[in-house]
From TrEMBL:
Pfam family, any one: ABC_tran
Protein name: ABC transporter ATP-binding protein
Organism for this UniProt entry: Bizionia argentinensis JUB59
InterPro entries to which the protein is assigned, alphabetical: AAA+_ATPase (IPR003593), ABC_transporter-like_ATP-bd (IPR003439), P-loop_NTPase (IPR027417)
Domain ABC transporter: 7-236
Coiled coil start-end: none
Gene Ontology CC annotations of this record: membrane
């Protein structure tokens, strides 16, 4: 594995019976990169991500994430990544502070470090006034930003974001992407799935999956040049139409 790559997959495949959900995909993600993983619903994005984060065993192929093998070192992968699922991951019946404390413990931080990180996250997000409120009472945008911060609490090498801005307003989406940029500039690699094609423009490189295969992979600028179009949405439409 190239030392500059934090994810490297070759021929990664996942089959369910006779159905091939992910068909021999090969790609790498560089350290500190914002890597967009795009595709329509059912294209295989989530299945591929589940293999990379160590919760689904591939049928064949090879992959390493943060230097660990997806077949034999899934638990090591889980300790070295952050993950924010499409379905909101925090607990609605715990307060903001309790959620941070709980996930800090899950990620193995000491009590002293959890206390420090709790204070830091609440201040960074401007949540001082609602720190003792139940997370379930917060607006969706605040929940999403808190969930992202909690995914970074243990300072992972890579954070996987599955449709992180689904359902939030445009202003909150922009604020969320500012948080992504900040994490990237601090050296965290961002692997993000999204169905918002304008968000593909914010990524360093983009992979587009169609029917379980990666059909395009490059910078947004080069992909638009390659397909002779003005937007990533047009790139996606051309690929979808075959």
């Amino acid at each position: 594995m190239n030392k500059n790559n934090v994810i490297q997959a070759e021929g990664l495949t996942k089959m369910f019976g006779d159905f091939t959900a992910v068909n021999a995909i090969t790609f790498e993600v560089k350290k500190g990169e914002i890597f967009g993983f795009l595709g329509a619903n059912g294209a295989g994005k989530t299945t591929a991500m589940k293999m990379l984060i160590g919760i689904s065993t591939p049928t064949s192929g090879t992959a390493k994430v943060a230097g660990f093998d997806v077949f034999t070192q899934a638990e090591d992968i889980k300790r070295n990544i952050g993950y924010m699922s499409q379905k909101f991951a925090l607990y609605d019946d715990l307060t903001v502070k309790e959620n941070i404390t709980f996930f800090g413990g899950i990620y193995g931080l000491s009590r002293v470090r959890i206390k420090e990180k709790t204070k830091e996250l609440i201040a960074d997000l401007g949540l001082e006034e609602v720190a003792n409120q139940l997370v379930g009472s917060l607006p969706l945008g605040w929940k999403q930003k808190l969930s992202f911060s909690v995914a970074l609490i243990h300072e992972p090498k890579i954070v996987f974001l599955d449709e992180p801005t689904g359902g939030v307003d445009p202003i909150t989406r922009r604020q969320f992407w500012e948080m992504i940029y900040r994490a990237s500039h601090q050296g965290t690699t961002i692997f993000v799935t999204t169905h918002y094609m304008d968000e593909a423009e914010y990524c360093d490189r983009v992979s587009i999956m169609v029917n379980g295969k990666i059909e395009a992979l490059n910078t947004p600028k080069k992909l638009k040049e390659q397909f002779g179009v003005q937007s990533m949405n047009d790139v996606f439409l051309k690929l979808a139409r075959g």
